[in-house]
Write a structure and sequence with these properties.
The chain has 167 residues and is α+β, with helices and mostly antiparallel strands. Helices cover 31% and strands 29% of the residues. Strands 1, 2, 3, 4, 5, 6, 7 and 8 form an 8-stranded mixed sheet that branches. It is globular.
Length: 167
C-alpha cells in the first residue's frame, strides 16, 4: 500500500483522535485505564508540544495512522536525552494494519531525527501489548535498552527501545 506521511493539521485532529483511541483499544492497552484515552484523543495539545504526523491515503487523503514525534524537553518526551529524538502514540487504523502504514510512520520519524542531527531515536512500548509494533521496531533496527524501562503507574510497565543513527 502506498501512503503519504505529512504533518497533521487541525482538520486531521478528529480523525487522529478516533483512530488512536481505536487502535489502543483494539490492542487492549486502554483496558482498566483511567484517563489515558483522553490524553490520546487530545491531538491539539500533542501538536502544540511536538510534531503529529499522519499517514494518509494518497488518493483519498483519509488518515490511516499517526504518530507524535518529539525532541528532549518536550512535554511528551519520556525517554529522550540530549541528542535523542523520540516518538510516541504510534497508531494505525485497525482496518489499515498490516499494509505498511506503521513502517512509513516509523521511517518518517527516523528521517526527522536524522534531519534534526539526533544520534538516536528512543521509544517505549507497553510490556505484554503491541506485539506487532514491537516486531516492526525490531525490523527497523531498534534494540532493547532495559536500563531505560520504566513504569508510569502500577501495573503499566514500559519497555525501552533505541535505534542508533550514528552507524
Amino acid at each position: 500500500m502506498s501512503v503519504l506521511v505529512r504533518s497533521a493539521g487541525p482538520a486531521d485532529f478528529a480523525a487522529v483522535a478516533r483512530l488512536t483511541v481505536a487502535a489502543y483499544e483494539a490492542d487492549g492497552q486502554l483496558k482498566g485505564e483511567t484517563g489515558y484515552g483522553a490524553v490520546l484523543a487530545d491531538v491539539a495539545t500533542r501538536a502544540a508540544h511536538g510534531d503529529v504526523l499522519v499517514a494518509v491515503d494518497p488518493v483519498t487523503d483519509a488518515v490511516l495512522g499517526s504518530v507524535t514525534f518529539v525532541l528532549p524537553g518536550s512535554r511528551y518526551a519520556e525517554l529522550s536525552g540530549p541528542g535523542e529524538a523520540e516518538f510516541r502514540m504510534l497508531a494505525v487504523d485497525p482496518a489499515a494494519q498490516g499494509r505498511g502504514v506503521g513502517a512509513a510512520l516509523v521511517d518518517a520519524c527516523v528521517a526527522r531525527a536524522t534531519g534534526s542531527g539526533c544520534s538516536a531515536v528512543v521509544i517505549c512500548v507497553r510490556d505484554g501489548h503491541a506485539a506487532s509494533a514491537q516486531r516492526l521496531y525490531r525490523r527497523r533496527g531498534f534494540v532493547r535498552v532495559p536500563e531505560k524501562d520504566w513504569s508510569p503507574l502500577a501495573g503499566v510497565d514500559l519497555l525501552a527501545l533505541r535505534l542508533d543513527l550514528t552507524g
